[in-house]
Amino acid sequence: MTRTFSSALALTTALCLVAASPSDGQTSRTFDLSAPDAALPMDAAARIEPGAVIRLPDGAAGVRIRVATIAARPLGDVAVTGTVDGTGEPVRLTLGGTGYYTAAGMERWRPNGSGQGQFLAPGSLASSDLAEEERLVVAQTLAALPHDASGILELQAELSDSFVRRHGLASRLRAQDLAEAVNAALADLGREVSIELVALRGADTGASSTPGIAFAGLDTIAADVIVAAVLPSSRAVRVGDPATAFATIINAGAGEATSCGLALTGASPAGSFSYQITDALNQPAGTPDTPVNIPANGAQSYIFSFTPSTTFEPGGDLPLEFTCTNRASAVMNSGVNTLWFSASANAVPDIIAIADTGASVGLNALPGVVDILDRQRRGPFAVATANVGASGTITVSAAPTSDIPVTVRVCQTDAGTGACLASPSTELTLDINAGATPSFAVFAAGDVPIAFAPATNRIRVLFSEGGAVRGSTTVAIRTLLTEPILPEVSFLYADADVNLPNYYRNGPVVAADNTPIDNRITNAGATLGRVLFYDRRLSLNNAVSCASCHVQALGFSDDGQFSTGFEGGLTGRHSPGLTNARYYDRGHFFWDERADTLEDQVLIPIPNEVEMGLPLDQAVARVAAEDFYAGLFTDAFGDAGVTAERMALAMAQFVRSMTSHNSRFDQALDAGPVGSAAFQAQLTEQEYLGLQLFMPVPGSDIQALNCGACHTTLAHISDDIHNIGLDATNDADAGAGNGAFKAPSLRNVAVRPQFMHDGRFTTLAEVIEFYNSGVQANPDLDGRMRQGPNPQRLNLTDEEKAALEAFLHTLTDQEFLTDERFSDPFAN
Fold this sequence. Notes:
Number of helices: 17
Distance between the termini: 63 Å
Strand order of the largest sheet: 1-2-3-4-5
Strand content: 15-25%
């Protein structure tokens, strides 16, 4: 038979060298690739011809392959056949366009820059050895693996047409290369999980019907398992009457599953059980109670019945078991492959309920799965019923089967139109006569993304009578991330297209602008940044986005003292507002200024272990995998290439575009300069008193508190980092050093529910009182907060404190807080 494994090392012998050329009459030569430092010239002199000898590593001595034939293949590969010198054992090698040799024990040969080849030691495949598409495969696979996965995950790889075309018959080996690269990356990340390929599609035939590449996004499968399903999921019968249902056993293994059938185990109700396979029309076939073999990746349907001999109330799951002699029994999941059964002395309602998620008409994407569309937060499905038992008064309810944050409502529907006959509610009660076929609609809603775990994350619809189950059905539920909804004509963000007031375009405000010369705001760049800012795909479990902690209605701050991360953990500091971030002269970001630029800052939360938890390379891969991003990146940067740097540039443009300039204070400035009669006329007497306390006002005889000395310019943003004496020591949080912190702009400060870096204050009145009487004698207290050696005491009257607060409210820009340019593009 054809040699495929060496006796010494069980090596797969497959070569990927250079394409063969016609013979020019040269004498046969030997290509010795048996030593780790062997090299093969990549020029025309390296032609492999009939009669040539290729020496491959095989134990200590190596193995000599004498070439017999060379034949081109449709996918661009060249097949070489030959025999092993000394034994005559046939061998097949593969020549391809990738220019590397793969053999054995994961030793690899590849061309180097000088045209020579070199071996790579086992396990040495690095990211730099991968093509761009292959690096994307690795990153996408990392992103697709569940964050809580552990141990060895057995995967089936789908090889794309392009992958197979490039690697030909070496596709299996290159797929294994990529699996090793994934495992190396997992090890680098400290993940206690690895992948193992148990099946490939597309590599054996040299063609693939699937558009995917390699491993990313594929379901985890076990090599030798069976899974099962039951329909319907409940029966309620009279003693002596059979309760029948259908079941299916699926063989997910690579080999045939033998003697597969059904049985009752454990403490089952009194009665008789029987099963029989069914044909394609669900008609009984074969011999009753006789197991059958199921081919690899095949399925077999059955009908089974249980006839009770005594009552069994209020009922329970029949102890079903699905078995094959060479497989472990199927794992049992309530509502998936269980049958709730009850037996009564008299006839009772027996509701056969079948859920339809509308996948065939596009209502949901998959049969049996309800999709809650992210931001739209609703997932509908229909339930058809038939009462094959007695008439009765039935209460219909729906609820999740596990602890998932979902609210479910149900209504009865018009059989003709499908419209609800009444408003959906958590439950409804109706009379269902024998033989009746009422239909229902169910609506699931939830704010928190739900992972696709169909065995556990399900919605159950119950039909009960006096607490006894008379029917039920379940569907899986998940959250799908949606595409952004963008206007046909782009929103305007660029300075040239935005009507910024003169005092933003000139003078101290523009002088403080931290926009770098190579990242000016563009309409396309900020549009892309807006989508990235709101995209939950940038968190490990699709749970949060940048906007989760920076809410537009709150001036892009957060409503909690600390922000909640992707897994429910809390950040160490309060999320500051982002209004007018571009006008912070120092240009550093975070409370402690640890980010040198805004371009640096926008990426840091993504891989943070509390905030979003997604490594940047995986974030890039996720973005690149979404078709809608290609046009956005092309518009912003000229091509569809996705990099972390481009993501940072776009998000920084979006954040810098968040300029607030239409508050009542701005409207007063439009009327006239500060201190003028026209300006003063736009404010109330109380607000104008607050302004005079906040900053010196021309013509005013009120002694200003000089708040504006730190909250500078008409953008009202901090001039530097300061220790303001929140605490007597810096032990709790040293900030940027010595207890100093950066402060966000006061624009829209009145809509924020928390204040200071630790969110300790919850009202503006508390903040003002702190500055009035609460500044602590910190050794590093800013000089402007001192009165001699002591902390300042402003001794404000209640009237003055109220006036200051009233002035701060004039900085609220309702147009900014509701501006669609800054809103969630994924919301419908």
